[in-house]
Design brief:
Helices cover 21% and strands 31% of the residues. The chain is an alpha/beta fold. It has two domains: 2-150, Carbamoyl-phosphate synthase small subunit, N-terminal domain (Glucose Oxidase, domain 1, 3-Layer(bba) Sandwich); 160-377, Class I glutamine amidotransferase (GATase) domain (Rossmann fold), CATH 3.40.50.880. The strands form three sheets. It has a ten-stranded mixed β-sheet, with helices on both faces. A seven-stranded mixed barrel has the order 1-2-8-6-4-3-9. A two-stranded parallel ribbon has the order 5-7. Strand 13, helix 7 and strand 14 form a beta-alpha-beta unit. The radius of gyration is 21 Å and the shape is globular. The termini are far apart.
Length: 378
């Protein structure tokens, strides 16, 4: 079945449908990871985005119920050069197409993903409309371009409310059932009570927290500071999530009220929200950072970490107050990747240390969080 991806600038890519059928709109982005497509599909940070995989063959190891980062697939659409109809892996339970059908995600294959990625790098990410052919009518490219142009985009819209949990819940899983343990786990003799804000949290972040001795309570994004402090946690975690941080005034206000009260650790959107609460500003990157091979320099040791990233917005370094130290820098474009407050126990990173691309280059951050909770309790 024919499928078309139409961009807001008038560019049209024709290919073949796989997965669900229908029509969808979103911001078209690209991810440079060679593997991990199921983690990409289920990452809440991709809400309202049509994701292009730059690696040419996708789907060869299938999908399973373990390699997930949230309750369901989150992307608006999925774009690949070639979909592997044959999948083989000892943990595989479904083909990629079956997985996309399960969550009604439209896929398109047999398009020039290199040309698409080059256009997004040169022009910047842009709105797109992905549609499949119907049996009773042909696709109209001009109509799809108009749909892409009319879509509101991400700036100024609160996407967190579409992915946050409706109610507080406890998380206890330490690691996935793959048989592979985390090489940097710490003793669980001491338990830390941690409240984790769900702005679109990835499951592996929660697994890492429990692996490092934390009893984790996950709370909705609009939970107030008084509600958090009433449970008297040892520390507070600010999760990743989708879209523009600027509209999340309720979250910024809450974080501002929590600074100095308890140790704070933020990842990705949580990093941006902490920076906003401290007086910083954010801006939209041209094409973002999405992949598993982003080099980041840790300023304290001058070591380089290979990191996994997924974000389209960034904190403006020059907007940060002098009470904040810059701890990490992206070596590709010198954008901000981490901060720490000089006086209060609060730090954050823009990348995803739980994704283990290094594989353990950045796992020390969770130990730093537990050490901070130890110091604060003295």
């Amino acid at each position: 079945m024919k499928a078309i991806l139409a961009l807001a600038d008038g560019t049209v890519f024709e290919g073949e449908q796989f997965g669900a059928t229908g029509e969808t709109v979103g911001e078209v982005v690209f991810n440079t990871s060679m593997t991990g497509y199921q983690e990409v599909l289920t990452d809440p940070s991709y809400k309202s985005q049509i994701v292009t995989m730059t690696y040419p063959l996708i789907g060869n190891y299938g999908c399973n119920e373990v390699d997930i980062e949230s309750i369901c697939a989150q992307v608006e659409g999925f774009v690949v050069r070639e979909y592997s109809t044959f999948h083989s892996n000892w943990r595989s339970q479904w083909s990629l197409e079956e997985y996309l059908n399960k969550y009604n995600i439209i896929g398109i294959q047999n398009i020039d993903t290199r040309a698409l990625t080059r256009r997004l790098r040169v022009e910047g990410v842009m709105n797109g409309c992905l549609a499949t052919e119907h049996s009773d009518e042909k696709l109209n490219s001009e109509y799809l371009i108009e749909k892409a142009q009319a879509w509101h985009g991400l700036i100024g819209h609160d996407l967190v409310q579409r992915v946050t949990c409706p109610n507080t819940y406890a998380w206890s899983e330490r690691h996935t059932s793959t048989g592979f343990e985390n090489g940097d786990s710490t003793s669980n003799d001491k338990k830390y009570k941690v409240v984790a804000f769900d702005f679109g949290v990835k499951y592996n972040i929660l697994r890492q927290l429990t692996e490092h001795g934390c009893d984790v309570q996950v709370v909705p994004a609009n939970t107030t500071a008084d509600e958090v402090l009433a449970s008297n946690p040892d520390g507070i975690f600010l999760s990743n999530g989708p879209g523009d941080p600027m509209p999340l005034n309720y979250a910024t206000k809450t974080i501002r009220e929590l600074i100095g009260k308890k140790p704070l650790f933020g990842i990705c959107l949580g990093h941006q929200l902490l920076s906003l609460a401290l007086g910083g500003k954010t801006y939209k990157l041209k094409f973002g950072h999405r992949g598993a091979n982003q080099p980041v320099k840790f300023m304290e040791t001058e070591q380089v970490e290979i990191t996994s990233q997924n974000h389209g917005f960034c904190v403006d370094i020059d907007s940060l107050p002098n009470t904040v130290d810059i701890t990490h820098i992206n070596l590709n474009d010198n954008t901000l990747e981490g901060i720490q407050h000089r006086e209060y126990p609060a730090f954050s990173v823009q990348y995803h240390p739980e994704a283990s691309p290094g594989p353990h280059d950045a796992s020390y951050l969770f130990s730093r969080f537990t050490q901070m909770m130890d110091n604060h309790s003295i």
